[in-house]
Amino acid sequence: MKIAVPTNDGINITRELPAKGFHVFTVELGEITGEELRWNKTNDNGTNKDGPFNLVKDCSAILVNNSMTNGKSSGKQIIPVSGTIITRIIWDYLSDVIRKEANTCCCP
Predict the structure, then answer these.
(1) How far, in Å, CA of 34 to CA of 3, rounded?
(2) Domain 2-102: which CATH class?
(3) What is the pLDDT of residues 82-105, one digit of tens each?
(4) Any idea what DSSP says for residue 97?
(5) What ranges do the domains of the chain cover?
(6) What's the CA angle centered on 97, arms 107 and 34, to 5 degrees?
């Protein structure tokens, strides 16, 4: 699974979309197995020429700042998170997911 976090500097989550790019994490079995920065290409007037979500079409979810109230996601799962530093946000998110899975009993 791939999770994207919108960013303008590669370190902090942005408060609004569109962002200059996305920090994309590959997650397997609750562990980060890869990460990359994907930057939008812009037209001469500074607008994103590929569309705001073209860079994350292979991602399952986008983690966004809690202050983002709405935005088009192009069919992606939008997950509001708190915090500003991307590495802390992704680890908090994964810890929460693992904790929820551990609290789910699969026994009859």
Answers:
(1) 11
(2) alpha beta
(3) 899 999 999 999 988 877 766 655
(4) H
(5) 2-102
(6) 120
